[in-house]
Write a structure and sequence with these properties.
The protein is mainly alpha-helical and 338 residues long. The protein has one domain. Helix content is 58%, strand content 1%. It is built from 14 helices and 2 strands, in the order ααααααααααααααββ. Strands 1-2 form a two-stranded antiparallel ribbon. The radius of gyration is 24 Å and the shape is globular.
């Protein structure tokens, strides 16, 4: 049967269009939901790491919690020592509770009906762990560094809960929707600006300070990861001040990204992602998750997730707006649209 019998080239063209796959663009709500699911996955990972055998021993309190009191003001140090004493006397029960809380937070954020309650609970839990478990990330000790996880990985969970809060408000990037563009930019500047400050503290700028900080993370790691860390440490040996200045300059460049045009901002957010990966692998040994004593992946993945929350939204093209669909249904029925 000829093409003319079917109605000519017009019919053939319409049939071709019917079988073509339309290009699907994620809505802002879907992008936010994907970021929420990534945050949920990190909470679930924390809960699973908390179930490692080492965490159920008294050594968890004496080797992980208690040392964070060193260098902190007396009020903070005494509260950490107090919490470490309770954990040390009841390691099994307290650790089981810690793991359960983190697993429930992850599941709650992953389930749409409970996402708001879980995000709110995660803020409170993060603040408590940041104080009693991380010693405020060491920011009051004078020796905090981005390479060691400053300002503390767990406080970044609380920040992400705020930036990814479900809302119907519009914004130029996902993190701006819950709090507004001005406040979101302020939080970005505060975070990355603080990393610049920590990098340039006198305790981190000595000739061997950065080398010692990085090299110390190689202990107890797999051979391949230890080799990467040791090689990286050798690159900054006796070059601590220069390396700190370079790192601070890169961090400062990332910090001002939110003040620049979207095209430049995208490039600097990519730089932030690369920097987060370097910090995570070289400075944090991937959170020590391969050593049997890591309680969380540390700040690297969280910094990357925060950076993605600031990715500029693609402006809509002028012209007639066509209804967006997902599997033949309105876009609002997509499982990621809330």
């Amino acid at each position: 049967m000829s093409e003319t019998t079917l109605g000519g080239p017009e019919v053939a063209l319409s049939l071709g269009r019917a079988h073509s796959v339309p290009k699907v663009r994620r809505t802002p709500a879907e992008i936010r939901r994907l970021l929420q699911l990534a945050l949920a996955a990190l909470w679930l990972l924390d809960g699973l790491l908390q179930l490692q055998p080492f965490m159920f021993t008294k050594a968890f309190a004496t080797q992980i919690i208690d040392p964070t009191a060193q260098g902190n003001p007396s009020a903070v140090a005494h509260s950490i020592t107090w919490s470490a004493g309770i954990i040390g006397h009841h390691p099994v029960g307290t650790n089981a509770a810690f793991a359960a809380v983190q697993l429930l937070l992850g599941l709650g954020i992953a389930c749409r009906p409970t996402v708001r309650a879980a995000l709110a609970a995660s803020i409170g839990w993060s603040l408590a762990v940041w104080w009693f478990g991380e010693g405020l990330g060491g920011i009051l000790t004078g020796g905090a560094s981005p390479l060691s996880g400053a300002p503390g990985g767990v406080i970044l969970y609380a920040l992400l809960a705020v930036l990814l809060w479900p809302t119907d408000r519009e914004g130029p990037f996902p993190a701006a929707r819950p709090v507004g563009a001005v406040a979101a930019r302020g939080l970005w500047l505060l975070l990355w600006g603080s990393l610049v400050f920590f990098t340039l503290q006198s305790a981190n700028t000595g000739p061997q300070d950065m080398n010692a900080m990085i090299a110390g993370m190689a202990d107890g790691q797999p051979d391949w990861l230890g080799a990467i860390i040791k090689h990286s440490a050798s690159l900054v040996a006796h070059r601590g001040l220069a390396a700190s200045i370079i790192l601070a300059a890169v961090l400062a460049l990332v910090a001002v990204a939110v003040l620049l045009p979207p095209a430049v901002r995208r490039a600097l957010i990519v730089l932030a992602l690369v920097l987060a990966a370097v910090i995570w692998v070289v400075g944090e040994a991937m959170g020590g998750v391969f050593g049997g004593q890591g309680t969380d992946p540390n700040s690297g993945p969280l910094l990357a997730l925060i950076a993605l929350a600031y990715w500029p939204a693609t402006p809509r093209r002028p012209g007639r707006r066509r209804p967006e669909t997902w599997r033949g249904r309105p876009r609002e029925h997509s499982p990621l649209a809330r």
